[in-house]
Amino acid sequence: MKERRNTKKITIGTVKIGGDAPIAVQSMCSTDTHDTEACLMQTRALAASGCDIVRLAVPDMAAAKTFAFLKEHEIRVPLVADIHFDYRIALEAAACGADKIRINPGNIGEDAHVRAVVDACRTHHLPIRIGVNSGSLEKHILAKYGAPTAEALVESALYHVSLLEKFDFTDIVISIKASTVGEMICANRLLAEKCAYPLHLGVTEAGTAHMGTIKSAVGIGSLLCDGIGDTIRVSLTDDPVEEVREAHNILRALELEETGINLVSCPTCGRTQIPLIAMVKEFEARMDAGEIRTDRKLRVAMMGCVVNGPGEAREADLGIAGGKDEAVLFRHGEIVKKVPAKDAVNALIAAINEA
Ligand code: SF4
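# iron/sulfur cluster complex -> structure
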């Protein structure tokens, strides 16, 4: 892992993005923004699942009022208003309590409109996220490059940035999203060299929970390994709570989470003499059900055999390794005790909860 890029730290409600702030997980409501009750329920579900920032689409003035409703109902998770083209909706969302505005200043017309949005954001202490994606490149940039290449996406992002900087506004987060993973990685690497603003990472139109998670893990994960990225969204054609879960899993896989269990388990082989696959599934289900403490950072191993298990999982804080109808519980590679295989998951969970 490369050292994290030093970016400008910005504030969005109660959350910081950039600098040394933890990588923030974002998602977006899939509910109709006019349906205030549905948005309230989904925002609460997202916040409860560990979402740090929730975005809502704001297609018109009426939808902007939902921010006021959510704030009145004690929603504390920062809320982002996602606006296209009409700067007056941005002003309304800012007045109604949005914590960040996502708008591309190049799309809202004359300078006076950009200035009005900048002034409103300054008054309410709101950052602006510029979001560039391959489907919405400016015509002159597309004509120059002939296709939405990484260079074209970066030029577009920096063009929007310049329109805000013109009014001395620098509380900016940038996202560049492309639906091919390789292009998204290249574009963000290029952008990271050219500015110090925090970057929001995501693969747009990534697909269903399974394939979309794979694409996101490759795209977001590669950049995080490069030290690039300050906030992430896993876009899935699914319940947004799933997006949050998979975003945390990506962070956990890279050991970037400050708490939680990073589960290491072997693929099983001819040496395995315990039902390891079923045991790992049971462990995960009980973790999802909240039976296992996840308020500290732990690496937990579940290995099929004692021949290689404790050794291969030497880095684990705690683990089990199977024998014949029994398992050993080990801590930092040292065997603590033997238990019957049927009790092994319980013994592991008890040891984690006591640790
Ligand atoms: S830990 Fe043991 S059972 Fe698991 S794959 Fe390695 S050798 Fe096979």
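# post-check
Residues 10-253 form a domain with the TIM Barrel fold (CATH 3.20.20.20).
The longest helix spans residues 209-225.
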